[in-house]
Design a protein that fits this description.
Order of helices and strands: EEEHEEEEHHEHEHEHEHEHEHEHE
Number of helices: 10
Number of domains: 2
CATH superfamily of the largest domain: Medium-chain alcohol dehydrogenases, catalytic domain
Strand content: 25-35%
Helix content: 25-40%
Shape: globular
CATH topology of the largest domain: Quinone Oxidoreductase, Chain A, domain 1
CATH class of the largest domain: Alpha Beta
CATH architecture of the largest domain: Alpha-Beta Complex
Structural class: alpha/beta
């Protein structure tokens, strides 16, 4: 099979497309014929050497979609459509950047859909994180206001769609003026240009602050996001687009505005129940909801894909396709 291998951390030139043996699953594991895989900041952190617990060489990729190719326990039939995500994929065992991958059954979410693989490949990890951030992380309710910091990321766009569907009023930021229209197209009520003082912009619209905020940029913008949130409001720290996720010398009383709650979210495959995945896939197919634009790359173009990911060249989700190029 063809697979992308990262021998050691470094620039995109450390990503190599190679021929590897098709992996054999043990009991409790399932082999998936991968059709598509989403690209995530997690894989960028792995490539840059920022992720902990990674062993090399490694096939990256914390998610994949495809069909069951082999299940030694006979619990999943061959050809069953599945998503696989998290739980060490692409870090402690080989992940989704390959034509086949082997994962623990507990990390598999079955589904049925006629959507193109490119569309399906954009959904699992993004949906899991957006859904979990809004429900577990923020407990967002209809009629509330939500600020998304890092709104034109794939996760930001997906969260905006889910929050609007829930009945929330959505504010979202971008550092690039030309991308504010992308936020409008995603249904964001108040696109905001991130000038470093988003809290002031929010308070001009909502003097008491937002009910909830999702931090996707990281610790550099977290204090400003906290200041934009009302007393008894909640900020959920989910993403690190800045590649910065620690606060040196954290002093809670000095750091947190009085009465503002700070939570975090980081989910696993078990946090994306199969009925939730199936419901959103059906609604995407029906044109009732969109998680945002999708940009596709062949395995041969993985270095270009990672450059686009690292430099933020695209608005929306980047997806790799495993199909071999036509002769």
């Amino acid at each position: 099979m063809r697979a992308v291998v990262l021998d050691e951390p470094g620039p995109v030139t450390r990503l190599h497309l190679r021929e590897l043996p098709v992996p054999e699953p043990e009991r409790g594991w399932v082999r998936i014929k991968v059709e598509a895989f989403g690209l995530n900041r997690s894989e960028l952190h792995t490539r840059l050497g920022l992720a902990e617990g990674v062993t090399f060489p490694r096939v990256p990729g914390i998610e994949a979609v495809g069909t069951v190719d082999a299940d030694p326990d006979g619990l999943l039939p061959p050809g069953q459509q599945v998503a696989a995500l998290m739980g060490g994929m692409g870090r402690v065992f080989d992940g989704g950047y390959a034509e086949y991958t082997v994962v623990p059954r507990a990390q598999i979410v079955p589904f049925r859909s006629d959507l193109p693989w490119a569309t399906l490949g954009a959904v699992p990890e993004t949906l899991q994180t957006a859904y979990g951030s809004l429900t577990t992380g923020l407990d967002l309710r209809a009629g509330q206001t939500l600020l998304i910091r890092g709104g034109t990321s794939a996760l930001g766009l997906a969260t905006a769609a889910l929050a609007k569907d829930l009945g929330a009023t959505v504010l979202a930021t971008s550092r690039r003026p030309e991308r504010l229209d992308d936020l409008k197209r995603q249904g964001v009520d108040h696109p905001l240009l991130d000038d470093g003082d988003v809290a002031a912009q929010v308070r001009r619209l909502l003097p008491e602050g937002v009910d909830a905020a999702l931090e996707l940029v990281g610790t550099p913008t977290l204090p400003d996001t906290l200041r934009a949130t009302r007393v008894h409001g909640t900020v959920c720290f989910t993403g690190m687009l800045s590649n910065e996720w620690t606060v040196p010398d954290f002093y809670p009383i000095g750091y947190l505005p009085t009465g503002v709650r700070l939570t975090a979210y980081g989910g696993e495959a078990s946090d994306l129940p199969a009925p939730v995945l199936q419901t959103y896939l059906d609604r995407i197919a029906a044109g009732e909801i969109s998680l945002g634009p999708v940009h596709t790359y062949a395995l041969d173009d993985i270095r270009t894909a990672h450059r686009d990911l690292e430099e933020g060249r695209r608005v929306g989700k980047l997806v790799g396709l495993t199909g071999r190029p036509s002769a």
